[in-house]
Amino acid sequence: MEHRTFPSPSPGTTTVSSGRPAAEPGPTAGGIPPRTPPRTLRARRRRPAVLAMAVAMVAAGGLGGAVLYNSTGQRIAVLALARDVPKGQAISAEDLVVARIASDPVLRPLGAQERTKAVGLRATGDLRRGALLVKADLTDDPLVEAGQTVVGVATKRTQLPATKLQPGDRVLVVSTPESGQNGSTVRTPETIAVRVVAVGKADTDGSVVVDVAVAPADGTRLAAWVATGKLQIILAPRAGTGAPAPAPAPSGSAA
């Protein structure tokens, strides 16, 4: 039997299925063949960059969340109106609600901690639901001063001004004496300066009962006018309009 020997391939050469040596890449200028890194190595080299970008995005998101949290945390608790409150009415606990707003030096509403102090004070004007409560909206000026009495004045629609009366308004109650047979008046009209304490609801015929605060000496006289129904309620001149507000007339005096 004949035996044949084949030379073993030299290092650096590879064989192919045909038995012929495969061509090697040409040498570089320095005589060293180029080496191409495998794909897995290139993919691994890109991963640190992607990881760094992800870390940066997470940090940016955390910073934005911190800024949003800080801006939200600067809100303050203030008092607002839970419902409409007419002028002159005393503030009750049910009239107030706590609202949280962003701090602003321009806005100066009453803080939520002042809720107890606000309850019991009167509204200086018509307060609307949802409005912030400020110091100028409240007053501790009592409607009924010490020593005064409250008289209910029953009036018809024609005995009241067209302007709706509200608690705190200062008005004049004028007696309207009857005329004599020849057209002359029996007596000179008298006036009493009073302050509106409360205004009742109008009846079907338009009559309204108005509670007014008056000095004790004038209370009985006013009650006598109410019994006769011969009276008229007019708005007193406001301060600063050129005409001073009239003082209560002494008992028994004529205007």
TrEMBL record:
SMART domains: SAF (SM00858). Pfam families: SAF. CDD domains: SAF_CpaB_FlgA_like (cd11614). Residues 11-33 have a biased composition (Low complexity). The chain crosses the membrane at residues 49-69. Residues 1-42 are annotated as: Disordered. Residues 76-139 form the SAF domain. Keywords: Membrane, Transmembrane, Transmembrane helix. This is SAF domain-containing protein. It comes from Kitasatospora sp. CMC57.
